Amino acid sequence: MNLFILDYPDRRPLHMKLYNQLKEQILTEKLPPGAKLPSVRQLAAELAVSRNTVDYAYAQLCTEGFIYSKSRSGYYVSSLEQECKVRPSSPPVGLIRERINAQKNFEFDFHPASLSPESFPDKLWRKLTAESLSEKSEQFTAYCDPQGELDLRLQIQGYLERFRGVSCSPEQIVICSGLQDSLAVIAQLLQAEHASLAVENPGHWLPGTVFQRYAFTVHSVPVQPDGLDLDCLQQTASTVVYITPSHQFPFGYVMPVEKRLKLIQWMEHTGGVIIEDDYDSELRYHGKPIPALQGLYPEGGIIYVGTFAKVLSPALRVSYMVLPDALLPHYHQLFRQYAPAVSLLEQKTLYHFMMQGYWERHLRTMRTRYKRKHDALLQAVQHYFGSRASILGQGAGLHIVLKLIDCPFSEPELIRRAEDQLVRLFPVSETYSGGNPEAHIMLGFGRMNPEQLEKGVARLAHAWLDDKEYCSPE
Amino acid sequence: MNLFILDYPDRRPLHMKLYNQLKEQILTEKLPPGAKLPSVRQLAAELAVSRNTVDYAYAQLCTEGFIYSKSRSGYYVSSLEQECKVRPSSPPVGLIRERINAQKNFEFDFHPASLSPESFPDKLWRKLTAESLSEKSEQFTAYCDPQGELDLRLQIQGYLERFRGVSCSPEQIVICSGLQDSLAVIAQLLQAEHASLAVENPGHWLPGTVFQRYAFTVHSVPVQPDGLDLDCLQQTASTVVYITPSHQFPFGYVMPVEKRLKLIQWMEHTGGVIIEDDYDSELRYHGKPIPALQGLYPEGGIIYVGTFAKVLSPALRVSYMVLPDALLPHYHQLFRQYAPAVSLLEQKTLYHFMMQGYWERHLRTMRTRYKRKHDALLQAVQHYFGSRASILGQGAGLHIVLKLIDCPFSEPELIRRAEDQLVRLFPVSETYSGGNPEAHIMLGFGRMNPEQLEKGVARLAHAWLDDKEYCSPE
After folding, report:
1. In whole angstroms, what is the distance from residue A228 CA to residue A289 CA?
2. Model pLDDT, residue A26
3. pLDDT for B443-469, tens place per residue?
4. Element (H, E) at A22
């Protein structure tokens, strides 16, 4: 029998170390089946540990069936039918951290969905969390409403009615942990009666991905400046459509009311369902936000999806959706016994945030802040690119789309050149099914301040325009 | 044109009220297509509001396409193709609350997964949340690691290794928002190569439900006192199996190591996958917890699933799973671009809770507390039921199963009689596919204190045994 090394540096108690080493020797057959183990007294002496330590390890191995005791004879290794390999120790954590940190060396980050770094109301959130924790803490020891807390749903209902023109009752609202969660619930709700989803092209990649995993066929429908091409939609024979009518992703188009009503007609004729994603509708910098499609026909089959990710925090993982009345019985049937997706503490804190008026105030502050950034970015593009670029989707959200005129570079080449200058860009091509025909670049303005935005755009102009290939006469 | 009532009591600014009323009149065709609107000056005078108010409302209606302007002529109503109904106002919230409160009038609650009501460490959680919020609050303005925070994963890895005998690296750990979330991720991971899942019968209803929604066939395999019937498992031709080997749900059986190794053999021969749910393994009241199956063969296809719901809080919605190395590339391919399921704030707070040693301390406290409750329940059953009942699954978890001897009542009848006495029970039959052949009742002991448990059992004895049908000679 090998000597045990019990002093290797970890926090486990001695008997656990002994237990683990014995188990390993049994599994690797260094202690073969039938082998007699040393007596408790003998092993304790050999290892200079107390008998209790050995007793404990043996008892545990007995309980689990690795060894057995024969009366008046001692302990023996059980006969286990299979060899089990012993795993190499964990990979060094330092390496993992390095790998993660290596990704973060950009000087300018045009991420299209990052918020202002200083914008999270941490002190307020601390106060509201404390308030939430001081109420009935026994609530945290049980499962709560799978649909989300009623108090929070009431706040969201009021907000949606006043600010988004959404007409619903709190019973139609479901609290979710983000768009992917909402979409997964929707796909499960619809999979009994629908088999195919139409999505915008270009558009967000997520809806198609989630629905495909629930065995839906996914059709890409081209987007025009007034939104989805309805003739194409009809040709797909899809009965479910995902759209972003208030601020089309990525191009920022607004679907005018006439097309909205035609889409509602389509829904009525086909018995279809519209999934309206209103993801950053609060952020409109000129005029009022466009009211939701849902408000035009609240009794129809429109599922409204919204989030706190774009104005409050993408890291808190709270979103919501509004289900049509007709889907509620099926929703309850499928999800009544599920647990909620979002932590009760988060829900309660968000409830206080909304109820005490902080949400509306935060919204106004953020709108002003992002308007400043948005305007700075537009100015910088105008200054450094002039007639060599035009801008799409301005006036709302957290990004614009830059369209380069007479650009000799492909999108990957544009991004590579930007990266060489330590500027992080995000491809528009990923929003296309079938490739991006033109040199379009998404420029998110949430993360950087106006000065950084200006410098970042200058860096881009340097990376692209100063190249001699680009210096064609205009 | 109707007069506008702009002073009805809501918080919206004047121009919003005007906008809404105009929109409603257009949608209901009180203002028909082609109708000319009053000029800005005229309407402002009529309503005694500023011209800006009218300007704003008109501009918004223009943006959305409800009206259009003709140069030098004024504003006209667009021709919209469809009438849109106006929704009735929301249902009364008072009614909803009443309905919810009506469900909570039991005096004794034997819920099998409720924790001790006073056990949530609210003051500590407040302190740790404050600490988490005082670190780099800009983290809350971006999306974070879809797999979960590395720091938390490291803590979980250490805990699993020391306490559960699980051998893994933090790169194999995924933070989830509960069992349903873990199972949904697993189903998506496996659906390309597997089509059928075997589950325990009786067993938890959730795995079968989640996998069915991902188009898996689900087979029920009988459970024996040493765990799953492996011959039956083989006959199902399933290649994925969900098991609770440390504390079988609902009967509390422990799968001995020999059967565990046979199951591993099955996995190797079929190229199969074992989903090991170790849901309440920390709570074992006699001897040490049974180490996880995963630790026997960490390099194989075992997916380990664990949760904080049974010892810390079911309302916080945090769980985790350990994926085999072989599944990691596919996991990253499918979920790299997803957002995490759990809030960053919750993850950070839990990290501090574990890192500062509170989790292990809490675990020990809870084990002691639940052991006291467990023992009190056993004693009460012995006292009030004597030879008329036997107990299954004792010594661990948060519930036992009561088996009534020579019981004349069906399970629904037993539950109904208990409800008449204001005792809430949970049917074992729901854990069976194909009905519960015997009068088994789950008794959760997490929620009540020892005195309540005793009184609750007395109430049950009164509800059942005092009936003359039951008073057969022994």
Report:
1. 20
2. 83
3. 999 999 999 999 999 999 999 988 766
4. helix A14-27
Q: What is the pLDDT of residues A143-160, one digit of tens each?
A: 899 999 999 999 999 999
Q: Which of A363, A256, A259 is nearest to A306 (CA)?
A: A363
The residue that leads in pLDDT, A315 or A82, is: A315
Using the Cβ of B339 and the Cβ atoms of chain A, whether some distance falls under 8 Å is answered with: yes
CA distance B471 to chain A (A): 37
Give the per-residue pLDDT at B83: 36
CB contact (8 A) between residue A315 and residue B122 = no
Q: What percentage of chain B reaches a pLDDT higher than 90?
A: 61
How far apart CA B143 and CA B278 sit, in angstroms, is 30
Task: Kindly write down the DSSP assignment for every residue of B6-31, as one continuous string.
Answer: --SS-SS-HHHHHHHHHHHHHHTTSS
Q: Which residues of B touch A216 (CB under 8 A)?
A: none
User: Could you tell me if A7 lies within 8 Å of chain B, comparing CB atoms?
Assistant: no
d(CA A98, CA B312): 32
Would you say residue B472 has pLDDT above 60? no
By C-alpha distance, the chain B residue nearest A154 is: B93
- Whether chain A has a CB inside 8 Å of the CB on B65: the answer is yes
A185, two tokens: 């619930």
Say if residues B321 and B304 touch (Cβ distance below 8 Å): yes
The Cα–Cα gap between A462 and A472 comes to: 15
Per residue, the 3-state secondary structure of B31-64, as one string, reads CCCCCECCCHHHHHHHHCCCHHHHHHHHHHHHHC
- CB within 8 A of A392, min separation 6: which ones? A251, A252, A400, A401, A402, A403, A440
Distance from CA of B236 to the nearest CA of A (A): 23
Chain B, residues 274-313, CB within 8 A of chain A, namely 287-288, 290-291, 296-299, 309, 313
Band (pLDDT 50/70/90 cuts) for residue B79 is: confident
B70: CB partners within 8 A, 6+ apart: B76
Chain A positions touching B111 (Cβ under 8 A) are 142
Flag whether residue A369 sits within 8 Å of chain B, measured between CB atoms: no
What domains sit in chain B, N to C, each tagged with a CATH number? 14-101 (1.10.10.10), 108-116+361-470 (3.90.1150.10), 143-356 (3.40.640.10)
Which stretch of DSSP H or E encloses residue A328? helix A328-335
CA angle B88, B92, B96 (to 5 degrees): 130
User: What is the rounded end-to-end Cα distance, in angstroms, of chain A?
Assistant: 85
Tokens matching residue A26: 């049994």
Tokens of A437: 């025909």
Chain B 140-169, residues with CB within 8 Å of chain A CB atoms: 140-145, 150, 154, 157, 162, 165, 167-169
Any idea what the Cα angle at residue B289 is, between residues A61 and B231, rounded to 5°?
75
Instruction: Choose the closest CB to A140 out of B288, B315, B447.
Output: B315
Token pair of B201, please?
A: 């019968």
Among B221, B228, B186, B193, smallest CA distance to B207 is for B186
**Cα dihedral across residues B413, B418, B422, B426: positive or negative:** negative
pLDDT in tens, A282-320: 898 887 777 899 999 999 999 999 999 999 999 999 999
Confidence check on the interface: ipTM exceeds 0.85, yes or no = no
Q: Is residue B88 very low, low, confident or very high in pLDDT (cuts 50, 70, 90)?
A: very low
Residues A175, A341: Cα–Cα separation, whole Å: 7
Averaged pLDDT for residues A42-53: 83
Render pLDDT for B16-65 as a digit per residue (tens, 0 to 9).
778 888 887 887 777 888 888 888 888 888 888 888 788 878 877 876 77
Q: Do B10 and A162 touch (CB under 8 A)?
A: yes
- A167 to chain B, closest Cα gap in Å: 7
What average pLDDT does the segment B96-121 reach?
A: 77
